[in-house]
Design goal:
The protein is mainly alpha-helical. The chain has two domains: 2-119, no CATH class; 123-394, no CATH class. The chain contains 15 helices and two strands. Strand 1 (242-243) and strand 2 (249-250) form a beta hairpin. The protein is elongated.
Length: 408
């Protein structure tokens, strides 16, 4: 009880000058310097830890209760565990205009951006997250210019006689496999390096005995995978959905995320199946409309139209208090690239046996290249870091608390 009283007292002291910017960034652990956004999360979580009204809302609050103070690693972990559903903001008695000014979704969103910046690989690319709108525009312009020029160089013109849907008459298969394979390998490596540094920071080896962690790893991994695939915490913590424009709940944010996620995975599966057809079975493109690669790609493309259109619509209508408005260029740029990828892919499929195939193929490949180049330095990273945070949460809750409150 005394510890909770101390937390309330500290929260009140931190909020004494809440009207000024400096009063909102008081570091909780002076020994570990925090960025302004991280200090604000630490201040807010001290208040939440004393109140605990939202303890059953989502994974953030049970994880929070296992801590009494919040250093840099804690704020990064909890910020990535937050799914920005907005429910806690509307339930909070200390939300603005209260003097404590507790806004968990907004503060967490700002720290997530800091996380992406701090753990980017190579580190020099970190600032691209904060200039995501410009990054997407330049990548898109560069990708389109590259493949339009290459198409003209390889075929002599962007309009031609119908080629029975044979894309490789425009760009050789080995050329595409080499270019996109190299870029994809870099994307995987860059994201892996970033999340590896994040994991080492938020899960230091001395926190738990190796054997203790190993004993729960399988069950924790299964639970984390379940929560990732079902987008469990986009239900608002109560099954009714997220808040968007106001305090009304809507299930559509979760549904549009499902369309987007599984649309992306179906398109990826289509590419993998086509690769197996080509190299393992000796079956070369073009494939019939009823073939497995085309069916998977078509279903994925439709999902990647419905999902991004819906997410963009929600994003345009979303209450500014539910997130960080500075991240809107990153959010909308990624959504736009996904939508352009699917729209140009479906257009290419529909008109692949016409004189416009080379033009449509060059445009589609240019958009896909822009998407690939920006994956490690844009909104896509949130799925990778959030998955790691969910895995840590699943492991952590199976281990005994280190607080040992009331112990002799």
């Amino acid at each position: 009880m005394q510890q909770l009283t101390d937390l309330v007292a500290r929260a009140r002291a931190d909020a004494d000058g809440i009207g000024s910017a400096s009063a909102r960034v008081i570091p909780i652990r002076p020994a570990l310097p925090l960025a302004a956004s991280e200090a604000e999360v630490a201040r807010i979580l001290q208040i939440c830890n004393a109140c605990r009204y939202c303890e059953g809302f989502c994974a953030v609050f049970p994880a929070m209760t296992r801590r009494l103070e919040f250093g840099k690693a804690d704020t990064h972990y909890l910020a990535n565990l937050c799914h920005n559903c907005g429910s806690c903001l509307h339930a909070c008695q200390y939300a603005p205009p209260h003097e404590f000014a507790v806004n968990v979704p907004q503060a967490m969103a700002q720290v997530r951006m800091q996380t992406y910046h701090d753990y980017a690989w190579p580190p020099a690319m970190g600032p691209l997250y904060k200039k995501a709108g410009l990054t997407v525009a330049l990548a898109l312009a560069g990708g389109l210019a590259l493949f339009l020029v290459l198409a003209v160089a390889m075929t002599g013109a962007l309009l031609h006689e119908p080629l029975a849907g044979n894309f490789y008459a425009i760009f050789p298969h080995n050329f595409l496999a080499l270019v996109f394979g190299a870029v994809f390998a870099f994307v995987v490596f860059a994201l892996a390096m970033g999340v590896r540094r994040f994991w080492r920071e938020v899960s230091p080896t001395q926190e738990n005995a190796p054997g203790e962690v190993a004993g729960v790893r399988a069950a924790a991994g299964a639970e984390a995978a379940h929560d990732v695939l079902r987008l469990t915490y986009l239900d608002g913590g109560h099954g009714e959905g997220c808040n968007n424009e106001d305090d009304r709940f809507t299930p559509w944010r979760r549904r549009f995320h499902h369309f987007t996620f599984y649309g992306f995975m179906l398109c990826f599966a289509s590419t993998c199946v086509a690769t197996l057809y080509h190299y393992l079975l000796g079956l070369h493109a073009p494939y019939a409309l009823t073939s497995l690669p085309v069916l998977l790609g078509t279903a994925g493309g439709i999902g990647l139209v419905i999902g991004p259109v819906g997410l963009l619509w929600l994003n345009l209508r979303r209450n500014a208090a539910h997130g960080d408005v500075a991240q809107r260029p990153m959010d909308r740029g990624f959504i736009a690239l996904l939508l352009l990828t699917s729209a140009t892919g479906l257009a290419l499929l529909a008109w692949r046996d016409t004189a416009f195939m080379a033009l449509l193929l060059a445009v589609h490949l240019g958009v896909v290249m822009a998407l690939f180049l920006t994956l490690p330095y844009g909104k896509f990273a949130h799925g990778i870091f959030r998955s790691a945070a969910l895995l840590k949460f699943a492991i952590e809750k199976r281990l005994p608390s280190r607080l040992q409150l009331g112990a002799e």
